[in-house]
Amino acid sequence: MDAPPAPRAPADGTRTRIVRAAAVLMQRQGYEATGIKRIAQDAGATLGSVYHFFPGGKKELAVEALRHGAQEFTDLLRTGLDSSDDPAEAVAECARLLARTLRDSDWTDGCPVAATALEFIGRSPAIQLASEEALGRWRELLAGKLGAAGISDEVARELACSVLSTLEGAELLCRVSASEEPLHIAGRHLARLIRSF
Amino acid sequence: MDAPPAPRAPADGTRTRIVRAAAVLMQRQGYEATGIKRIAQDAGATLGSVYHFFPGGKKELAVEALRHGAQEFTDLLRTGLDSSDDPAEAVAECARLLARTLRDSDWTDGCPVAATALEFIGRSPAIQLASEEALGRWRELLAGKLGAAGISDEVARELACSVLSTLEGAELLCRVSASEEPLHIAGRHLARLIRSF
DNA sequence: GTAGCACTAGAACGAACGTTCTATCAAGTA
DNA sequence: TACTTGATAGAACGTTCGTTCTAGTGCTAC
Fold first, then answer.
1. What does the angle CA B183 – CA A68 – CA A175 come to, to the nearest 5 degrees?
2. Distance between CA atoms of A195 and A185, rounded to whole angstroms?
3. Does strand D come within 7 Å of the CB of B4?
4. Which of A76, B76, B78, B133 is the residue whose CA sits 20 to 30 A from B97?
5. CATH number (domain holding residue B171)
6. Can you tell me the distance from the alpha carbon of B72 to that of B64, in angstroms, rounded to the nearest whole number?
7. Per-residue pLDDT tens for B114-136?
């Protein structure tokens, strides 16, 4: 048998493809608007495979997709933060990076948890917890950068919170208005705020 | 309030109840997770009434619900902004007001457009437009307050953008973590940022 | 009266949903 | 060979969805 890798199943594992497809779709349109059959189709998998890897069904897959998306967002944030020793400049770079990613993806690839999280406030502990963990990790990442620049722990933790709030909100504004402006403005204002401490 | 200027009889409690119920449900869990039958039930109306008043179906009702919720949020914002002549203090009061409203409603009554808007980025012009209009109105409201305090129009418009971004993002963090902290921190930081101009 | 209209009421429909089910394939083990 | 196990495949199930449809109510005007 002349055996090149099957065109149907690329090198990546089926499970990973399912998680990635779910993460992308949920990031774009939230949980409820995303059907399991569509996830399977986009992943090049079948329903049988989905339920084989995720016997807990859609909810279990959603939690995993949220974690996967959160990790990618963490990487993006880390890239921005590593761009400069000056935390103000580093945060501004995060805003620029986020704005570019958003525009290049037609305003779809933003925060991977926001849309889904808002659907489930007080309605699904598992999903709310996964969202909370992601936001908490990003906040600590930011606080670490600020603290490393000599800002006191207390101030750094609070600043990190506002930086995250502003980036999240500016991303919402960018996506709704299909414009990079809110994130660019946010970057400048956040840098100014950080430098004031 | 938006008294319907329609030539029809204003004795239309049912229509208003339907819009209000839809607004509440969509604010809490977004569009897709909100069923029309549930809306009718919560409004004390029937499906017949819903489709009588909204022949365009769920989408048409959603746009109206978004507008209704946006108006209520405008009122809340205006209340906060009117609380002080100092724009920094007024914005901080908005954050406090928002935090209290969130807590008192078990973290459900926040921005009425965020959840739904995120579901429809690039997928429904009508809903995206309604969301964009709401965010634009809030931004202008904030810019007006800042401009009235002597801040130049250009700076005021940009500041208003970041204030809105930060409040929106902080609200997301509050809801996910079931805590008032992000909004309280945001209020203090926004006041500091405004005073720096 | 009764004709007309705005509104209420909910049964019924087709489509889509998440899920379950059985069957099959491929590879490893004995 | 036969048996096991992880993974694939998709038909089928019951439910719920948004929507449509027909019937009925209450009110106003003639």
1. 50
2. 16
3. no
4. B133
5. 1.10.357.10
6. 13
7. 999 999 999 999 999 999 999 99
Structural tokens at position B13: 């409690």
B4 lies in a domain? Answer: no
Query: Which domain, by its residues, includes A137?
Result: 14-195
Does the pLDDT at position B1 exceed 90? no
Looking at residue B184, its pLDDT comes to 98
Residue nearest to nucleotide C16 (CA to C1'): A35
Query: Looking at residue A107, what DSSP letter applies?
Result: S
Distance A121 CA to C11 C1' (A): 35
Average pLDDT in chain A: 93
B2 part of a folded domain: no
Taking contacts as CB-CB distances below 8 angstroms, the residues of chain B near A107 are: 121-122
Classify residue B111: in a domain, yes or no: yes
Provide the shortest C-alpha distance from residue B69 to chain A (in Å).
16
Q: Which amino acid is at B50?
A: V
Residue B57 lies in a domain: yes
**Domain count of the fold of chain A:** 1
CA B174 to centroid of chain Cα atoms: 16
Measured over the CA atoms of residue A105, residue A187, residue A94 and residue A34, the dihedral's sign is: negative
